[in-house]
Amino acid sequence: MAGGLGVDLVGGYAGVVAVVALSFVVAQCLVLLSQRLRFRRVMQKSAELTQKSAAEPDAKRIPITLVTGFLGAGKTTLLNHVLSSADHGLRVAVLINEFGAVSVDHRLIAGHATSGALADVVVMKNGCMCCSGDSPGSELEGILNKLLEMTAVDSSLYDYMLIETSGLADPTAVVHLLFRHEMARSRFVLDGVVTLVDASNVHRHLAVPERGPLVRPRPEVARQLALADVVLLTKTDAIGDAPGGREAVERAVREACPAATIVVSHPARAPLEQLLGIDAFRRRRVHLAPERGPTAVHTLGAQTVCLRVRGALTLSALQAWLQRVVVTHEAELYRLKGTLSIAGERRRFVVQGVHGEVRGHFDEAVGADVAASAQDATSRQPEDDESSVLVLIASTGPPPDFAHQLDEAELQSSLQACALDGEGSVVVVRTDKPGATRRAAPALDGDECVDCGDEQPLKKLAHTEARARIARRGGAAPSGLA
Ligand SMILES: Nc1nc2c(ncn2[C@@H]2O[C@H](COP(=O)(O)OP(=O)(O)OP(=O)(O)O)[C@@H](O)[C@H]2O)c(=O)[nH]1
């Protein structure tokens, strides 16, 4: 009897294990299949792009600068600088990709462009360009679709394109895409990769021993640096020249990307001639080919909470709330940003936070498009209100380092308490919880060097380029280069 029960139990467990194993295998197969299909679409679209471009051999080529850098490093500030500078005389198309379901950046960008400098802003929400994504159309495809659309637009309408990656993006796959031989024959040409590094916070994501312990390494930061042609070191004003200051950060950055040029500047005053039109890729003799196997190192490990506010908030209550949030979440809060409606104010209140620091200011230019709609805000549903939003992005991990995970219900109710006379409401638009780790995107197969036809793993690119530049300068290659 007991023996029979034991056999039944063993048989039962074996059945459960078999079902679990089978489900796992089926799930993996489906993921692989969907990735293959996606890559096929990407290949077809890049071929289509070449064909369309070939039909207009005389159309001018549009240089693309990929602007990357971790959350809060200053990418949007740099884009605004480009768009408000009259000196370059370019009409710029901007493609931005935000992490989180709600886009704040497009509002901060469009309001600041001087007339004539901005040709178009396109936002791709909730994504990281390196990932295959959960949705049918990936961000990579999003870029291709946009480029395809733009081949249909009169090329005299724009002269330059800026693509801003999300702060949590590993830009490898995008660089790959833009560097493929099909792309080399298209209307678009990759001019360079500009990586912004927040000198005051980079030690939290990349080892800078002199500046304190590394709490959570972000592999995206290392990849963003590895691909950089130019590193724009920002926020050095916040750390000064004391030991563990700017020099220590520069040393760490130099180690991470020996080949890149380092420019130290506030992004709002960056010397654009050192960032745009640098022709870094055409000058490269080594072209990208895929690594075999997964290339993207994007690991989520981050949680996003997007809050939408209906009605006006009281400024003093909001300020106290913001202060409390950044103090509580300093270690894990990568980013806090939004544009909010304040009682008695027509202008939007722009909130900018990175780790333990938060600032806010009223901005005339931001939300000018929504001023009219604010008048009938009472008749609108909170989920319809695009103009008053707050996005929080935080790292996740075990205590004690990450003792205070974001609690969307608590954030919602405490922010709601900042509403004027208790009226208005705050809704959680979306939370992205950790655990929903996206798969890294495998490389595109069958790529080859435009110049020599050789296949060359991407990871060697930085090294080869480093060697080439060092050789040009007549120096010795640093140790550690393969
Ligand atoms: N003090 C100082 N503040 C800076 C500097 N660069 C950017 N900031 C501020 O840092 C905050 C974040 O800048 P953004 O340009 O929005 O950063 P971002 O990289 O676009 O951020 P995400 O799009 O969220 O990844 C803003 O308040 C900027 O004004 C700098 O060099 N010095």
Automatic annotation (TrEMBL):
InterPro entries on file: CobW-likC_sf, CobW-like_C, CobW/HypB/UreG_nucleotide-bd, P-loop_NTPase, Zinc-reg_GTPase_activator
GO cellular component: cytoplasm
UniProt KW keywords: Chaperone, Hydrolase, Membrane, Nucleotide-binding, Transmembrane, Transmembrane helix
Catalytic activity line of the entry: GTP + H2O = GDP + phosphate + H(+)
MF terms (GO), sorted A to Z: hydrolase activity; nucleotide binding
Record-stated family: Belongs to the SIMIBI class G3E GTPase family. ZNG1 subfamily.
Protein name, UniProt field: CobW C-terminal domain-containing protein
Biological source species: Diacronema lutheri (Unicellular marine alga)
